[in-house]
Structure formats: C-alpha cells, structure tokens
Amino acid sequence: SPFKMFVNNIYLWQTMDKLKKELLKYNFTNTYIKQIAGNVGVDIIKLMNTKPTTPEEISKKLDEKITDVRSALNSLHFYGIACYKKERDEKNMYQFLWNIQYKKLVEKLLDHEFTKYKQIENTILEKQNRDYFICPNKCSNMPFEIAAQYNFKCPTCGKPLELEDKKIITNLKKQKKETSKNIKNLETLLKQINDNKKGYICE
Asked: In whole angstroms, what is the distance from residue 168 CA to residue 133 CA?
C-alpha cells in the first residue's frame, strides 16, 4: 500500500541518515571526499539523503554556484559514488536527478585505507631493518647506502644529513593501528548499507 511504502521510505531515510553520520564523523572520510571532489563534494555528501535531487536544488540549498555543484557531482560520478537518472519534469523537460551511493563510497574508502595500511607496513619494515638519514630542511630522506654516496650531505641543499630518530617507527606503528581500526569500522558499516542503483547511471 502507499502508506506502507511511505513508512518504509521514512525508515530507510532514518537508517541511512544514521549510517551517513557515522561515516562522516571520521576525518579520513572527509579528507578522501575533499581529495576527489573538493569542499563542495563534502557538502553535497553531507546534504543528500536517499531522495534523488537535482543540481539546481543542491546549488540553492548549499548556496554554491551551479557550475561548482555539477563539477563536484561529475567528480563523484567518476568514482561511482554519485549516480544520476534522467526524468521529465512537469514542463516535459529533461532533468537530472542525482543520488549518492554510500556503499560505493565505503568500498572506495576501504580500498584507500587498505593501500595506506600496506604502505605503512612496508615503511615500518624498511626503517626497522636499515638506518635512514634525513635532511634538517626536510629535502630528502634516504637509506645509509644512498646517504654514503652523497657523503652524508643533502643533494638538494648541501646540509649535513642526520640519522633519523627511530621514534618514527613508534609513530608509524600508531598510524598502522589507527588505520586497522578504520578498516574494521568501515567493514562493519559496509554490511549495513544497501544502495539503490535501479534506473541510475553510475559508471
């Protein structure tokens, strides 16, 4: 019945809104969206729920230029996070209706965090097994063998290279632990989200 459909839609909206808030509380979520779609992209994700929305409506609600909104939507669409469908309005003109695929966003974030985790792990292994030398001006960071070839002087600015403090490994291990926690949280969220892709162009 129409009433049952209405109740289901309200429930879906409330559930998705809760999951979206959970997802957006993590700094790495906002950082990732900003990298691919700028600040406007972050605002679009925060604004939208399960209801399809036109770029014009988004532009009005965010008080952003329509060109900036379309650009951010296209960037999100490139990654499969924003999807659209064409429908005719009351004037029989085509309009683009957009929605956000939160499951896809979580999948992309998981890929990003997995890559980061592997990079941190590899860096820890490298730095545990070898001495690294750094430039005080932060121009360069290199293992002992390379530093020796440059007579322990920075090839960029000429400053004497310094032995890197092993405390960096402690910091990297902390980052690894945080990234592992992010992955577990995202995996939990992924199981709770179902996207509506029916009729939408996502790729």
From this structure: 12
Residue 7 — pLDDT band, cuts 50, 70, 90?
A: very low
Burial 163-192 (b: 16+ CB within 10 A, else e): ebeeeeeeebeebbeebeebbebbeebeee
Residues 6+ apart with CB under 8 A from 147: 133, 161
pTM score of the predicted model = 0.81
Query: What gap in Å lies between CA 144 and CA 152, rounded to an integer?
Result: 9
